[in-house]
Design goal:
seven-stranded antiparallel beta sheet; disordered C terminus; disordered N terminus; 738 residues; alpha+beta; six-stranded antiparallel barrel
């Protein structure tokens, strides 16, 4: 046995055969901080590097794969290899430097072959397509030309034989003297003449056809040339983008500041997202269709299309003002805390009622759910809808304006999306908003949300209280769920960022189907992808039917369960599900261009504060301080906000002096308190009348923002924690910071 074979045998690596592109062997792969490097079986084949826990797993479970055609190969020290492609990085370690060098050589060779193969396939497919199109056009012309030559030959023969026939008939006519015979011959002669004329007409028509085909051929040639140039331009653009992507990725990897933050202790690599140690394992089975109701588009007639309003797509850019909470608190030393005005610099130009309405951004999920015949499939879509409401919070750290007591907000999207929505601030202590939506596409949703918050030093926990109800008209399915906890990090120092964590239980109270959703909190030491959401949809008997997975800021997928079993691995009990391939339920819309300068608003959020005609005087769009802020007039907005707050304080003082007691409870205009038969809770439900009042344009019962009669705030004690709360996305419990 040669020295090379001995070395391979000792390391467990399989030597590649002559001309083979396959290389196998054991390497140590970094998993996480608790387990460090773990021994894994790696297989390099056809430009792909895959790994398994054991050699036996090659038959059924691949733990991960990297395409070497787009991968970067780095060597850190004597035994380490780092492979990165896209967002995935493998930190590998060989047992010896010699073994590491063998792997690096095999990887570099496989990468070169993969890149060459990719270019050859792309180039050959492009040339084959262009050549086939050109050959097809040329072949058509040749065929037409040959047919025309055949027709010309036939025409010559017809003319030749026709002339001979006419000569023969003329001679026959001269020889015969009978009148009857002469008439018959004359008729035949006329027919022969007509035949000749017809053949000439036919050949002329064919010549015209050829001319037309030639002109079309020139047009096809020009179009084909244009497509070739466009393809070449696109290929060049893609190549440039790929180079820029590689440069940015390399710069990101080599950034020392990033390495200092993400490096593991003692020089170990940062941990990566990996699926190999999950509590629940999923295996794909045969393909099958997951029917979630008709996915066809909602057709709109031409007349309706003409009346649809074009919504705005941008707002004024956010001014670049630098301001921090501590500078405000320092300037307020010695002042009464309840009278500290919080500037709009910490806000975004939307009210909390408008943020609540943003839950409807993906209302088409409910439209699809309304068409489902299966309650379990409907549950999958309702679950995706509940997750989608958090997608706008990933980059939205500014707080919305606190609604004034009695403030309302309507969103009429009857023509575009088939629904009408109305909100009202029904309570100020605790801050509470009621929301009601009715859709012509078969569903009604209502909710009352009260915000509770706890400041915990470095972060703030925001806990929305209250249930969300959804009823589908045709089936009567009634779904109820609650929101998870939002956490705002880096309250005091650093860049604010938001995370969602906790569990959501969605229950269909008609069928008793349920869905358990888990929002995993972010952890630097976790193997999970950030913002991960998982769930299981079960029937009334507790039998699991669908697995849900995704992230709350990107997408959700569902996979139908074929079989489940209980097992153990490394001392842990786990449920193993065999599923069909996952199907996409929901995908987040991309943000508009220049969104970072427009408060990271989504396309829907950009339209929420757009001026509307005929709305109630209490509508959030008419709030002056919020409108001034949207117009980038922040100094005027702060002045208007402070004036509004002082006006409301005066109203309360006068009422207390007049009544000699605490201010009476506010009675909402459009919502009434009732006990819910399902949850047993007393909450506000829509009592009707808003849209009828809008149709009549009778808002006589409503105050205005300029009217001090709009009792906005019950001013309670405002302490330091309330000031901190006011920095982030949550209404505080004091009207002075709205």
């Amino acid at each position: 046995m040669s020295e090379r074979e001995k070395s391979l045998a000792s390391s467990g690596a399989a030597a590649p055969g002559p001309g083979s592109d396959t290389y196998k062997g054991w390497l140590y792969k970094w998993t996480n901080y608790l387990k460090g490097y773990q021994r894994r079986w790696f297989v390099l084949s056809n430009g792909l590097l895959s790994y398994y826990r054991t050699q036996a797993e090659m038959a059924h479970t691949c733990r991960g794969t990297i395409n070497l055609a787009t991968a970067h190969i780095n060597t850190e020290d004597a035994c380490n290899i780092v492979l990165s492609s896209g967002g995935r990085t493998y930190h590998l370690k060989a047992s010896t430097e010699v073994e590491r060098q063998r792997w690096v050589t095999a990887l570099e060779l496989a990468k070169a072959k993969a890149i060459l193969h990719m270019h050859l396939v792309s180039s050959s497919s492009s040339h084959i397509w262009a050549a086939s199109q050109s050959h097809q056009a040329q072949g058509t012309l040749r065929l037409l030309g040959s047919k025309l030559e055949d027709l010309s030959t036939c025409n010559e023969l017809i003319a030749k034989h026709g002339a001979a026939l006419q000569r023969s008939l003329s001679e026959l006519e001269a020889l015969r003297g009978l009148i009857e015979g002469s008439e018959k011959i004359k008729a035949v002669n006329e027919r022969a003449t007509l035949f000749r004329i017809t053949s000439n007409a036919m050949i002329n028509a064919c010549r015209d056809f050829l001319d037309l085909a030639e002109s079309h051929s020139r047009r096809w040639t020009r179009a084909l040339q244009y497509e070739r140039e466009q393809r070449a331009h696109l290929e060049e653009t893609i190549e440039q983008l790929a180079k820029q992507h590689n440069s940015l990725e390399r710069a990101w990897r080599e950034n020392p500041a990033r390495e200092a933050l993400t490096a593991a202790p003692n020089g170990a690599p940062k941990e990566e997202a990996s699926d190999e140690d999950e509590e629940t394992e999923y295996f794909d089975a045969m393909e099958d269709a997951f029917i979630t109701g008709s996915l066809g588009w909602n057709h709109v007639s031409g007349r309706e299309l003409q009346t649809l309003r074009l919504r705005r797509t941008h707002i004024p850019d956010k001014p670049n003002y630098s301001l921090n909470l501590w500078s405000i608190m320092k300037n307020c030393i010695g002042k009464e805390l309840s009278k500290i005005p919080m500037p709009v610099n910490f806000n975004e130009p939307l009210s909390m009622l408008q943020r609540l309405t943003e839950d409807l951004e993906y209302s088409e999920l409910l439209d699809r759910a309304a068409r489902c015949e299966s309650s379990l499939e409907q549950m999958c879509l309702v679950s995706a809808f509940s997750v989608s409401s958090y997608s706008t919070t990933a980059h939205r750290t500014a707080k919305p304006f606190n609604p004034l007591l009695g403030e309302t907000y309507e969103l009429d999207r009857l023509q575009e999306h088939g629904y009408r929505s109305v909100c009202e601030q029904v309570s100020h202590h605790p801050p509470s908003a009621a929301h009601h939506v009715i859709s012509q596409r078969g569903w009604t949703l209502w909710q009352e949300i009260t915000i509770a918050s706890k400041f915990r030093g470095k972060y703030l926990s925001i806990m929305p209280l209250g249930a969300i109800h959804l009823v589908f008209h045709s089936s009567g399915n009634h779904y109820v769920w609650r929101k998870v906890t939002s956490t705002v990090h880096n309250i005091i120092v650093g860049k604010l960022w938001i995370d969602q964590s906790g569990d959501i239980e969605i229950v269909n109270h008609r069928t008793k189907d349920s869905c358990q959703l888990k929002f995993s909190p972010y952890s630097y030491f976790s193997r999970d992808v950030p913002r991960k959401v998982t769930g299981v949809v079960s029937d009334s008997a507790g039998q699991a039917h669908y697995i849900l997975s995704g992230t709350w800021d990107d997408k959700m997928e569902s996979a139908k369960i074929l079989q489940s079993s209980r097992g153990s691995s490394e001392g842990k009990q786990k449920t193993v599900y065999q599923t069909l391939s996952p199907k996409l339920l929901w995908k987040k819309y991309p943000l508009p261009d220049n969104a970072e300068k427009m408060y990271n608003f989504s396309s829907l959020a950009l339209t929420l504060n757009e001026p509307e005609e005929d709305v109630a005087q209490t509508d959030s769009r008419l709030r002056p301080d919020q409108r001034l802020m949207e117009d980038a007039r922040w100094d005027e907005a702060n002045a208007e906000k402070q004036k509004l707050e002082e006006k409301q304080r005066g109203v309360r003082r006068r009422r207390e002096e007049k009544l000699s007691r605490e201010y009476e409870g506010y009675q909402p205009l459009w919502f009434t308190q009732r006990r819910n038969s399902i949850t047993g809770e007393i909450n506000y439900v829509y009592n009707g009348g808003y849209w009828e009042a809008k149709d009549r344009q009778d808002w006589s019962m409503c105050p205005t923002f300029s009217d001090p009669g709009l009792s906005v705030m019950i001013l309670i004690r405002f302490d330091t924690f309330n000031a901190l709360i006011n920095k982030v996305f949550t209404p505080c419990c004091d009207g002075a910071c709205s």
